[in-house]
């Protein structure tokens, strides 16, 4: 976590005080909306090594008290050494978003513990329910699922407990997912990567979507983890590669010969069948296809994963490391990966212009990647100021809502044919000139 100001924690503090346990405490009134937020200390093991077990085990209680002071209407308590729960009710659903933002701001800065500053990495998953009373078990289940997804995505995730009960029946969804490819229910959207210096789109990332015939659009966070658990991820990914190749040919026919990147789940990197079939599919198109893999996916089975990535690299597939910095960021693995591209996780990009530490992390990552002969993509770029600072730092490409949201193939072609799509990069020059005077190489 980063920032300027710091909270101070007294090492003699005990457990969180102030009322009942958040899951069971009763409210004085019964508003329409119920909320349950789970906050996990993602870097708890690291903190425990520095602070010692006894001190680390009461850290969640310290953080709970910070939250209680800022959100007096909520009931905050400790569920485990690394887990905080915050429950409250309100008449307005927006209260949940305000509360989550408040908690992020509270903890997204160095915290002083016994005279030393520490970065506390807290991830938030939440459940919300309205209307008729929702049983506690369902609220807890959905909050835990949200926290699991938040851990994977490195961002706040909110799940609707009522909608989940009605529409996310995992057994039925798994059964339907196994037939989704054959039934033609999957489709792809594309998000461009803009080259900063060349001021043109340098490639696109393919993002899979599922339009269920009865449920409508199913969130990727609901069906992708399920696909990995049920092995539906294999046919789904092979379909994605085939479709990406077909769509790349369409782009080329319209004068846009761009490389298309496909996300590869960690469970597939050590799967011999996937490697064999994927190689056969891309054999004649390898120079037009890229595979994006995460750091954590390699850690599952590093020897097999690295060996298989080298097979893809040998036939010409462009390998990119996705979400760099969100996982363990192990240099031991990084130097062995045959990657040509490194994508900095949006966790470090979204606060680039407001944090003291994130620019240092991003700059050092860019320098490291360049030293390893990799190009760098910054994810989650949403402002001209962030783009300008990334340009000063030497970032090669950017991706994010400032450039384009994920769009369908036809919309992508229209976007590429409109010369105004480079305006975001061109408009950064004024901001670039202001920031260049203040940014100094370390």
From TrEMBL:
- Which InterPro entries does the entry mention? Cyclic-di-GMP_PDE-like, EAL_dom, EAL_sf, Nucleotide_cyclase, Rev_trsase/Diguanyl_cyclase
Q: What's the domain of life for this entry?
A: Bacteria
Residues covered by the EAL domain: 170-420
Question: What Pfam families does the record point to?
Answer: EAL
Any one GO MF term held by the record is: cyclic-guanylate-specific phosphodiesterase activity
Q: Which PROSITE patterns match?
A: EAL (PS50883)
Q: Write out the ranges of the annotated region (Disordered).
A: 1-26
PANTHER family with a match to the protein in the record: CYCLIC DI-GMP PHOSPHODIESTERASE PDEF, SIGNALING PROTEIN YKOW
- The name of this protein is EAL domain-containing protein
Species = Sphingomonas lenta
Species lineage, top-down?
Bacteria, Pseudomonadati, Pseudomonadota, Alphaproteobacteria, Sphingomonadales
